[in-house]
Amino acid sequence: MALVAFTACFANPFRGITGISEDDEREIGMEFDQELRGNVEVISDPVVTAFINDLGQSIVREIEPQPFIYRFRVIKNPSLNAFAVPGGYIYFHSETLLVAGDIHELAGVMGHEIAHAKAHHYARMTEKTQIPSLLTSLAGIGAAVATGEPGIAVATQAANVAVGLKFSREFEAESDQLGAIWLTRAGYDPSGITRFFERILEERDRYPNDIPPYLFSHPEVEERIATVTAQAEELTPVREPDLDLVAALPAVQERLRLLIETRRASLPHFPQNDEVTTEAATDIDVDIDAVLTEAGELSEAGHLDAALLKLARAEASGKRDPRVTFATGELLFDAGRYREAADAYLRTVAVDSSHAQVYYKLGLSQARSGERHHAVYALEHASLRVGPQTDLYHDIAWEIEKLTFVIVPESGFADGSVGVTSAAPPGRPRSEFTTAAPRIVWWARIGDHFSDRRDDISIRWIAPDGRIVREGPAESGTGPYVTATLEFSSDIESTPGRWVLEARTRRDVVSRATVEIQR
After folding, report:
1. What is the CATH number of domain 278-404?
2. CA 2 – CA 121 distance, rounded (Å)
3. Residue 281 near residue 274, CB atoms below 8 Å
């Protein structure tokens, strides 16, 4: 939108594709986020942040595939505002969350800001050579928010608007349109955002001196209300919204008010589940330490189901001991049952949200279940709960980095011929080989963010029968490429079947490719 500041729109989307890559956008967003979080109080409370993240992800999952991992932040600020920056970083001022009349109003704002990121509005605003000036501008916005000096904010915004003011209507209209469509897919009423626009008008009328006039003059809020209202009349939600989110909003607003009144960024625990009474928890005599010991012994003896059953009975007794659900998660994680493990870790943080290790394992479980957006959310909470000089902190940072940036965006196989092309540096591209082939060459383009770590990549060739026939460091190719060559000889035969190439860092498999050898 942005509702009050920050996301002026800059370039004509119909003038072609810019030179800014998605990795560039991710880098810009990450740098801005670090700048902002270093100067502005961002709410870290697990209840508030989980709510705003779940709301955002309920919309994002309807528009996959997504180029970015979306992060949703709440900034402690008493003005009506929300804004998006490159790379999928979405920010809400706390007042926006507090005054929302229902989930549909808040979802309307959310959908609009997601549209700014998804539609690459920042990438479409400038050329790659101008990225440093954009970063400077974004840093200036962060400083303006931190100091609360409207003069700085206005000057920064005026500089941004000067880049491409005449296109603002286009980008805002596009975000209104896309956001409304995506809201209906997620079950939200697209007319909710018009009600929020009306709140902006009320705010302008009540406090005309607190809001710079140009923030509403382009484009006119009244005009957008009419446009979005007309569009909403043609759209119908395809299902009901997430009822848990609908029910949670009032409690989240009350908790956020308490955070602001007490000048805190977080409260220590989640609200207790009223369905679990003190009586239920004390009438059943359960020795948790003994249960944990017995479950561990059963698991080591190969009786996983029996161990899980014992832990489930302890959890059902009503004793809210986070060790029980964490132990359940650990057993499931080790068994490769990652979705079930994630559920157990979620039940753990619902009782005690103070431990980095729980959030870390939750994030790993969600990442391995394909829930990359939720995984980054959990991992970021883990990083808030551990010292920056610890091994765990660096492990968490690596996992976030892998999920945020693509290590190997492009790879393939070639025949190693002399003809070198940009698509396949080692030669002509091939998807199949025969047993007469003298060699197979694998090539990969390494993402910009990881370009300085090409030397860390090692290669493993695996034959159709599962044997590792060759492993060693990847070779640096031209430009951003690395290569690996498997020469067939007397000691390595070109066995027909499906061969596997694994590219690894010191920690993980970062790319896995297969190639067929036919007789």
Report:
1. 1.25.40.10
2. 12
3. no
